[in-house]
Amino acid sequence: MDNETKEYIDGRFDRFEEKLEEKFNQFREDTVHQFHIIAEDVISKLQAVAEGVASVTEKLDARTEELEKRIDEKNHETQAMMGVMYRQLDKKIDETADRMDKKIDKATDRLDKKIDRLDKRVDQLDKKVERMGKKIDETNEEVRGLRVDMRRVEDRIKAVDERFEEHERIAHHL
């Protein structure tokens, strides 16, 4: 095989390796970027839930304080009736708190599940990256093997050329 062909083949392999490495690097960058986007989304959702809880707590606190002031302002005759109403209000606050606790628990469960799914996706991506690394290693081994094979073929061609030239010289002398 002449030098030009060899250089052409080597160039093709080098460009193939460069493209493969470039695609692998782009894949890795895209994966990390997607992970950051997902993580930012989860964080913003957690912040929104926390703000919602704080807002509800403030409203409940404000409402409780308001009701306590109103009870204090009432005269002695209405205190008995207000006691009943106060107990009812307490029950409603407890029910509301229970409902809010359940909603918060559900939201937390959903977020936990999303985080678990994200963890699984990251694990899957890690496995894919590992498999790609192995494939790249295998491809590199194959390329090395092909180069060895190419050298053998070149040596064989050279030997055949030398024998052919010798046969031509012999034939030329006859």
Give the overall form: rod-shaped
Biggest pleated sheet: none
Structural class by helix and strand composition: mainly alpha
Contiguous low-pLDDT stretches (5 residues minimum) are: none
β-strand number: 0
Q: Please state the average pLDDT score.
A: 86
Could you state the order of secondary-structure elements as H and E? Answer: HH
Question: DSSP strand (E) fraction?
Answer: under 5%
In total, the number of domains comes to: 1
Please give the share of residues in helix: over 70%
Query: What gap, in angstroms, lies between the N and C termini?
Result: 30 Å
Radius of gyration: 39 Å
- In DSSP terms (H or I, runs of 4 or more residues), the helix count works out at 2
How would you characterize this protein structure?
The protein is mainly alpha-helical and 174 residues long. The protein has one domain. It contains two helices and no strands. It has helices at residues 3-73, 79-173. Helix 1 runs antiparallel to helix 2. It is rod-shaped, with a radius of gyration of 39 Å. The relative contact order is 0.08.
